[in-house]
What we know:
10-stranded mixed β-sheet; elongated
Amino acid sequence: MSRRRADSQSSLGPDDEVMPYSDDETDDELDQSMDEGERPAAAPIPEAQSSESGWRVKANDRAFIHLPEFQRRVVLCIKKSKYSGNAIRTYKYNALTFLPLNLYEQFKRAANLYFLALLILQIIPEISTLPWYTTLVPLVLVLGITAIKDLVDDLARHRMDKEINNRRCEVLQDGRFHESRWRYIQVGDVVRLKKNDFIPADLLLLSSSNPNSLCYVETAELDGETNLKFKMGLKVTDERLQEESQLAGFDAMIVCEEPNNRLDKFTGTMHWRNDRFPLDLDNMLLRGCKIRNTDYCHGLVIYAGFDTKIMRNGGKTRFKRTKIDQLMNYMVYTIFVVLILVCAGLAIGHTYWYEDIGSKAWYLFDGKDQSASYRGFLSFWGYIIVLNTMVPISLYVSVEVIRLGQSKFINWDLQMYYQEKDTPAKARTTTLNEQLGQIEYIFSDKTGTLTQNIMAFKKCTISGRTYGDPTSAEGVSLDRGRAVDFSKFHYADKNFQFFDHYLITCIQSRKDKDILEFFKLLSLCHTVMVEEKEGELIYQAASPDEGALVTAARNFGFVFLARTQDTITISEMGTEATYEMLALLDFNSDRKRMSIILRFPDGRIRLYCKGADTVIYERLSPHTRHKETTQESLDIFANETLRTLCLCYKDISHAEFEAWSRKHKEASVALGNREEALDNVYELIEKDMLLIGATAIEDKLQDGVPETIAKLAKADIKIWVLTGDKKETAENIGYSCELLTDDMQIHYGEDVNEKLTIRQANRRNNPVTKTKKTKEPFFTGTDKHALVITGSWLNEILYEKKKKRRRLRLRRLGKRPPSSNPQDNQPQDDYEKEMRQEDFVDMACECNAVICCRVTPKQKANVVSLVKKYKKAVTLSIGDGANDVNMIKTADIGVGISGQEGMQAVMSSDYAFAQFRYLQRLLLVHGRWSYIRMCKFLRYFFYKNFAFTLVHFWYSFFSGYSSQVAYEDWFITLYNVCYSSLPVLLVGLLDQDVSDKLSLKFPKLYLPGQQGALFNYKNFFISLFHGIFTSLIIFFIPYGAFLQTMGQDGEAPSDYQSFAVVTASSLIITVNLQISLDTSYWTFVNCFAVLGSIAIYFGIMFDIHSAGIHVLFPSAFTFTGVASNALRQPYLWLTIILTVGISLLPVICIQFLFKTIWPSVGDKVQRNRRKYEAEEEEEEKKKPTPFQRGRRSRRSAYAFSHSRGYADLIASGRSFRQRPQARRQPQASIREAPQAENI
């Protein structure tokens, strides 16, 4: 079945292959820089020139950056240099600021501030109805526990900062290199770095041990890619700055752009010895990268510390709060409003009561000459104190304890532990766990997150025959085969696996010339560079793809050994041969192919070419053979989501080459449009080629990625892939991980732009549609849709394209007025721009899958922000490199993939683990459990506090609204601390409705979290009315029982203190049994907590009511002997039992009806839990079937390099020493740089 693509009009849109800058200018930025743009086009001025007064660096001159012109005012008259030091600081507190800052942050919480005000009120004798310690003890406990948690978190940040700042490197001081810590490095210093050193700041590369100051760096910290990239120093610095004394005399002035977050751009000028030299990104070593394959190098510090690109690219650290946190705060405000209204009503009641009754009762005379209104005013504040437990102070500390425990469970989960890398899962925050159960959108990076960034040669087709499936040495197909033993080949890679023994037989027989030519082409046609170290060959590929192809040729007996500026040496089945390289026609995104022209040892001239099938087939000779069979093989490879590459060759006569060579030389020195001229010359020679075959490479997915995506999709979680990779590569991976399927209709940038433009035109032409609340869908019918869009199209669609600079500049100069043409595709105002963005988000959210490719770090964050803004959805971002940091910080939850890639993403994340597949367990198990536990905890917590507090309200009707409390003071103090806290804490920590296996088996169980169904205002008011009902029962049944009652001993038990004991005992038993009814997962600890809380209550009550403690503290303990006297009456025990029974019976009935008549998905799974668990055990016993790729017929446009290769480097000879030494015979092992542990 062929993949469908939505029809679209052809448009001259942006280039899909070009990645826009990571810091595209906004309107405001363009306004600031408009003066630069108004210069005449005829006299262009370098960008650095326009910044002469901006960022300037003087080499070997530390005093320069402290000149007055570079000082900026920080506070009042205190000034500081605008040049940042190299020390970084991510911690929040130090020894002096911890206490004041932490208290300030904690008192920004409304509840804490409220209880501080309450404490102050309780100190005032006239209105205090409760002792001050009833508020102080819980407040100090809350502040103390939160402060300790914050301190522990900050100490971890201190340790990390200290470790990084105290790394060492050599700095040039006083004419000599001295070892120094990173924190002491300053802008303008010259530093020396050695192999495997991390780069401490953004440096201008001056010289290195390699020829022409070439320096190889690994950028895993920046982009998660482990393939090496090269940087190169200027020719002048390479020749003049090799020795220590030369570096000490280096006094150049560097003028460059201000610090920014553009990882893909740098522009500057070096002024030295009365000359100027242009600088670009190829001359820069960025902080966070690692020196590889270079013994040493020297660099000049341009940006340090927080001015470096990696730190600037991190985005702002945002304080993240969960939806439940926000809802909880609103509910606390609601409770506070209710509290004010209730207290005001009771105060008014006291005013009228005192006028009618209180002032006339002689026994209530207190000797104070106070009016009824004033007494009502005092009563208001008295009730504020009495009913303060409606706003629960212990709620926040209990929530913190539960979150801490849930974070520990994530850390301890062995099923999220990656044994190969010894990497456990890590919850790096304790405040977002329940949000994991509400995720609606996941934004994922590709390289290193979905894939391993490891390419493997899987199959090939040569002369119409396909090789790679399990086959015997005789050519018989096998169902299952063993891997080929490559040990007979001298340079074989031990990790290379291939199952076709027949191909090995053909190579060894040397009968099929096409097969030999195929692997000879792979060993010759590439830009891989090789270096010999200690008898070992090390490959340095511009991309993992090329490394995989050269490695494959090596295993089949064609080993790339060495190259010079104009020769390539290989070993052909043990025989060494050297070929003269006449021309190297490098890959670029337009050509989608590369070629090499070689002179063979026998004098023949041959062109070898490899490239995407779409461009190779157009350039084949009409006489080429096996076109159809190769096409069929390509379709099969594409169905298996393998990345295909066609190989072909062409013999060239000497006369033809000489004629072409002259044209090539002319194009090489063209002053204008040189690249276009070269491409045209390349076209002349790359035609009438003969097809040899094609390769198929697998970009290995991480284990379990397709299954994880499928399971998350069943949980109604939408996954968007945001990657900097090429469109074809990203689309391929989309099919590999089953994010894209054959039955999806795919829409590209031009399609999306067309639909959005039509919607915008309709809105302009029909203003009525602006006021419509309901929107028409972009796609009708039941078809599945997917969106594949590039960064350039994203800018075009969202009006963030760089053409905006030219448009605004023309308007500023008055050459074109602002467009008012309703047919114009540009926004007329901010409202239109917002509507366009909202339309794009609506369209994308209608799709089953979205892939954004060639996007910058800033664009990744912008996409996340748009979904958060217009969908109000809970988002999660997951990535592994520094280019994902902004996205990770922008999302509600950020997840970092830890492993062989960099740690920047992990350091900025909220959760970290080693494999993408662990995401399903994090969300569907830990996230869902955390959400259910937190919701259950909050519902119950509000309930028990309402039930406890509102007894005072009912009691006020019988106490003249006098702010008299219904309980003993110590009971009020200890109720939330000792008597009712432990059972609900354990439910918040341990409860689970179904097991982890069933949570994964039934992803639909995740839906209530996305809908916020378990905790919302409806649940809150249910808890409120449940608490009101319970408080009514707890007050009025004992009240009725105490009326006109006589005890067994002839004494009336209906005194106030006995009543307080009975209501308190009924309350404790009721709330503890209520949490038992809400507990789904019973353990010994839960049972012990419920029974223990009741036992602790009675134990403490009998102690507090004892005569001994009354003798020691007569004013604090006034209920002497009440408990023992009251509770010896069977009548009162029957009252307690009746109260508890009537309180719980309606709850039991309602739960029974709901589980029987209106069961939820969770109830149904619970009911059949044993059956499902048995099925799960049976499935585990069965051997899992290997993942079978789907059958798709589509082109896999292969991109064998993410960027331009090393061709310029090779052809110029800059990578080779002036007098190369004779090459020693290499030893038996060859390594590729990306796979090496210690290069």
